[in-house]
Design goal:
This protein is α+β, with helices and mostly antiparallel strands. It is built from six helices and eight strands, in the order ααααββββββαββα. It is about 45% helix and about 25% strand.
């Protein structure tokens, strides 16, 4: 490699990998004792096609940056998906019902048990803790016959009914349609940004040189294919 080729190689490397502009590259040449060169000379160096080594380094650097951006966009996308799910929640409905037992099928005669009846909301025996979904009963002074195989409500030591809790379905909150739409729009924007970062829509690297010219470095087909494959794997 000639001394000029080496200077071109260094200028391109410093520019594309270290993001140095023309003035900073001139100072780097001087600081490393390579020489002092005019700005126009450095621009000429940057106008030349980078060597394969530099191109590969550029591709790797941009691939790393794109993956970092893509990972961030994926995190934001998942957060938006969770936000959409949070706009509608299903809450379990639990109600109180009498605790029961069953008369043994082996019994030959009916069992005598205190008679019971339902208590309606608003009744003086309706507990303060009860809701309209709860099934509340009270025992009367009479007895009733409970045949083998039939259920009957159990009594506590003080003679009051025993209760238990049971699952009575799901209650769905009102859908937040506006919140869902916003969350879906945010998901779409993050997916598009992720695709841009991974090079789905472009395989060119555009760089501005000292604000006076623009250089485009195209990714080779192998690198572009790898980026596309990575995109498919992440979706």
């Amino acid at each position: 490699m000639s001394t000029r080729d080496r200077r071109v190689h260094l200028a391109l490397k410093w520019h594309y990998l270290d993001n140095l502009d023309v003035g900073e590259i001139r100072k780097r040449f001087e600081a490393e004792g390579i020489g002092s060169y005019a700005r126009s000379t450095v621009r000429d160096y940057l106008n030349e096609q980078p060597k394969q080594e530099v191109i590969e380094a550029i591709e790797q650097r941009h691939a790393d940056v794109r993956l970092q951006i893509a990972e961030r966009e994926e995190q934001l996308y998942q957060r938006a998906r969770q936000a959409e799910r949070d706009t509608t929640k299903d809450e379990p409905i639990i109600r109180v019902v009498p605790k029961t037992d069953r008369v043994s099928d082996d019994r030959e005669t009916s069992m005598q048990w205190p008679e019971w009846e339902l208590v309606e909301p608003g009744d003086e025996d309706w507990p303060e803790w009860a809701t309209e979904r709860d099934v509340i009963i009270r025992f009367t002074d009479r007895t009733t016959s409970v045949r083998p195989g039939e259920e009957y409500p159990l009594r506590a030591v003080d003679g009051s009914p025993k209760y238990t809790k049971e699952f009575d379905g799901l209650e769905r909150d009102q859908d937040d349609l506006k919140g869902q739409a916003m969350a879906r729009q945010e998901q779409s924007s993050h997916l598009e940004a992720k695709g841009d970062a991974l090079g789905v829509y472009s395989t060119d690297i555009n760089m501005n040189v000292d604000g006076e010219m623009e250089t485009t470095v195209s990714l080779n087909e192998e690198a572009a294919a790898a980026v596309r494959e990575a995109t498919l794997d992440d979706e």
